[in-house]
Request: fold
Amino acid sequence: MRALPTLAVVVALASGCVSQRTWSPVVDPYGDPNAEYIGQDESECRDLAVRASGNAPEQTFASGLFGGLFGAATGAVIGAVAGDPGAGAAIGGASGGFSGLTFGALDANYRFQDTFRRCMHRRGHHVIG
Reply:
């Protein structure tokens, strides 16, 4: 029960790390025939990328929850073999939850950035990074 406040803090921190609203690709305006539209296209592509990648905090939380449940179940089985299923479940749940949160955050962020880059590229801009 002591792990619950810690897990809540980890979930809040991981969800905060998945801020998709602040990242922008590096666009080279040199030789770009559509350079005057970069700002407008960035705004429109950001909106599209947010919609395409889904709700990052919810997905991150769901991944963390699934990882925690799977880790707790696996840890309980391993802990039962070792003689302490409760400790195994706690360790498995914590490590699985953290792994799930990390995966969820990275996956949502990757989908957002990939969609953003492709949108800008398809609108004729030279996306560097």
Observations:
- The helical segments are 3-17, 38-53, 56-82, 85-122.
- The longest strand covers residues 27-28.
- Residues 56-124 form one domain.
